[in-house]
Amino acid sequence: MASDKPHNYEAGRAMRTQVLGADYVNKAVADPNDFAAPLQDIVTAHAWGTVWTRKALEPKLRSIATVSMLIALNRPNELKLHMRGALNNGVTPEELRELIIHGSVYCGFPAAMDSMRQAKALLEELALEQKQG
């Protein structure tokens, strides 16, 4: 039976899982009847299967670029998710802090302050997960 998933879906799901973690990806794509499922399939195939799998930039650099763009766009939910991915890709907490401070110059202090709140909350969550895990 042919898959109804877009081209590059499986490559995208593998990359998305590598960066964001299996728990997040499994929840995001778990219900094929979910209203947002078609968008999840497109994001998985295009963003993760076509763009993130390109070889010219290593995942750590892609994460740094993505975090920087999300700071500029002031998208806190996606930012927190991609900061977790950045840490998974080898970005250190200190490097995240410096990205946010650097972003304050180009994106404004309100965006930087919101971003710092997201980073702080994420680092607290990760510390709690380590304690429990």
How would the global form be characterised?
Answer: globular
User: Which residues form runs of ≥5 with pLDDT under 50?
Assistant: none
Kindly estimate the percentage of residues that lie in beta strands according to DSSP: under 5%
The tally of strands reads: 0
Gap from first CA to last CA: 40 Å
Radius of gyration: 16 Å
Total helical elements? 7
Helix content: over 70%
Estimated structural class: mainly alpha
Mean pLDDT reading = 94
Largest sheet: none
Descriptive terms for the model:
single chain; 133 residues; mainly alpha; 0% strand
Question: What's the quick description here?
Answer:
By secondary structure, the chain is mainly alpha-helical.
Describe this structure in words.
Helices cover 77% and strands 0% of the residues. With 133 residues, it is mainly α. The longest helix has 24 residues, at 109-132. The protein starts with 8 loop residues before the first helix and ends with a helix. The protein has helices spanning 9-20, 22-29, 37-51, 59-73, 76-88, 93-107, 109-132. It has 7 helices and no strands. Helix 1 (9-20) crosses helix 3 (37-51) and helix 4 (59-73) crosses helix 6 (93-107).
How would you summarize the topology of this molecule?
Blueprint: H1 9-20, H2 22-29, H3 37-51, H4 59-73, H5 76-88, H6 93-107, H7 109-132
